[in-house]
Structure formats: structure tokens, C-alpha cells
Amino acid sequence: MDWNAAIERNREALKRVLAMLVAMAGLGPRGQFAFSPQEGAAVSRLVRAQESKLSLPRHLHRAVLRLLRPAEAAARRLVIVMARGLVVKLPPARPRQPQPRSTILHDRLGTGILMPRGFRPEAGPRPPARRTFSLPLLDPLPRWRTSRRPAASGIPRISFPGIIAPHSVAVRQPPSPDDPVDAARLALRLDALGSALDDLPGQARRFARWRARRDAVGAQDKNRDAACAQDRQGRSTGRTRRLWPLRPGRPPGGRQRAVHEVHEVLRDLQWFAVKALERADTS
To answer: Could you tell me which residues belong to the region Disordered (predicted)?
Structure first.
């Protein structure tokens, strides 16, 4: 099996899907992102053009999101295939840093507040940090069916009989397909998908580090469970952790009948990812 040919073929297909999604959302040179081919970079690299707030009509936002979910799932499986047989060495654990002490000292007599020597208040509020987003390496788990809280159909009316007349309640309008929806997170997800497709070796090392941490924690949990079995109480202090990166059942955004190219890419990469994981577990 030619793994490299399969990786390159599906990578180019995901680049075409990403370019189509950016064009659908209207994120061209006048939008928040723009395609900018650079030397040594892939053609599909997304470059931030401006920080203005972006909004899309509801129907367009849902249409892009309907194809973005399977594209992200396919990219995760492409990273898993890329990380087959990759072994990394985990860095040593970082020592815990002591918590910073409070800059406000209380007087022992309780009559006021004393400031430490050399304390200088900040000049002003810090500017908000720039939001970043990375492609998640693990599939989101399926949501179990639970009873939803009914949506409120009105607002409470408080009045005094004989003094204040009850005001009329406006009828709640259903959401319109043309309502503006904030697309800032959607743009961040498109940016993360483009960055992951540009840096597949780096994403593969990232997944290999997660796999190494999972194996190390699993070995520690086995030793802890063996020690707890000898204990009288027999209680384990371990917590639930993800052991399998893929979602059980159908992948996110997957369909039985492919209606778009991204569904066919997801179906192929699902098979390759399962084979790569089985090969890593049996080796």
C-alpha cells in the first residue's frame, strides 16, 4: 500500500474543499482571510488580512458549517495516517510554579490596607489577546439524547392592578435565514484547517505526543489499579481518559451517500486511519 500517495491525493482534495469554503463565505481579499501563495508554503495557506468583525447570513453560515465539519474530520484522519509509526520522546514534566502572592497586604491591626514597597499600579488595561485556534486531534464524542429545556416564549409582566396597565408582549419571531450570524469562530476554524494542511508533519508529531502521553498515563493507571487492588478499600484515583481518537460509529459530518467530494474524502480517510491505528496498536 502506497501511504504517501494516498496522503498527497487526499491532501490536495482537502485543499480544494477549503478553497471552496473560503469562496462560499466570501472571505476573499476584502474579507477577513485571503489566499496568499508564499515561497515554501502550500497554496492553500490562509493569511489574516484584517481584524474586523465578520458576520454571515444564517443560511450561508450553516451551509459552510455543513461542509466544514466533514472537512475537519477528514483532516484529523489525515494527521493520524501521517503519524503512523512515528515515535517521539516526551519532554520531562515541568515543575509546578508557585502561585503569585497578592499585591495587597492587610494591616495586622485591621485598620486599613498596606501596599508593599516598590509596588506600581499598571498604567491601564491590557489589550485583548489575539484569538487563536488549533485543529482538534480528537473527534468530539456523540451527544446523548437528553431532555431539552423549553425555550421561553415571552417575558414576565409585572404590574400593579389599578395603577399600571399590563403592557403588550411582542410575538416571538422565528429565526430568519437572512439573520446575521457572528462568523468569527467559523473564520478561526477555517484558518486552523488551512494551517493543519500546510504543516502535516508538525500535526503528526503533535498526535504522536498525545499517543505517547496516553500510553504513559495508561501504564501509571495500571500500576495504581494494582496497588488499589491490594488495598482494603480498593478505590482507584484515576480519571476517565480518551483511549481512541476516533468517534465511535459514523464520523462527524459523514453520510451514507456522498453528496459532495468531502464526503468521499472522509470515507477514504476513515478506512486509512483505522488501518493506521490498528497497525500502531499491534506493533
So the answer is: 115-134, 218-257
118-145 burial, b at 16+ Cβ within 10 Å, e below that, comes to: eeeeeeeeeeeeeeeeebebebeeeeee
Amino acid making up residue 173: Q
Q: What letter would DSSP give residue 194?
A: H
**Distance from C-alpha of 116 to C-alpha of 105, rounded to nearest angstrom:** 7
Mean pLDDT (the chain) is 77
Cβ neighbours, 10 Å, residue 180: 12
Look up the pTM and report it.
0.73
More confident: 208 or 216: 208
Cβ atoms within 10 Å, residue 215? 12
- Among 86-90, 107-111, 125-129, the range with the most confident prediction by mean pLDDT is 86-90
SS3 state at 22: helix
Helix, strand, coil share (%) of the chain residues, nearest 5: 40, 5, 55
pLDDT for res 153: 63
Phi, psi angle pair for 115, to nearest 5°: -95, 140
CA angle 257, 195, 61 (to 5 degrees): 50
Looking at the DSSP bridge assignments, the partners of residue 105 are 114
DSSP code of residue 34: E
Residue 238 has what DSSP assignment?
Answer: -
Q: What is the mean pLDDT of residues 273-280?
A: 85
CA distances from 214 to 110, 218, 238, 239, 241 (A): 51, 6, 13, 12, 8
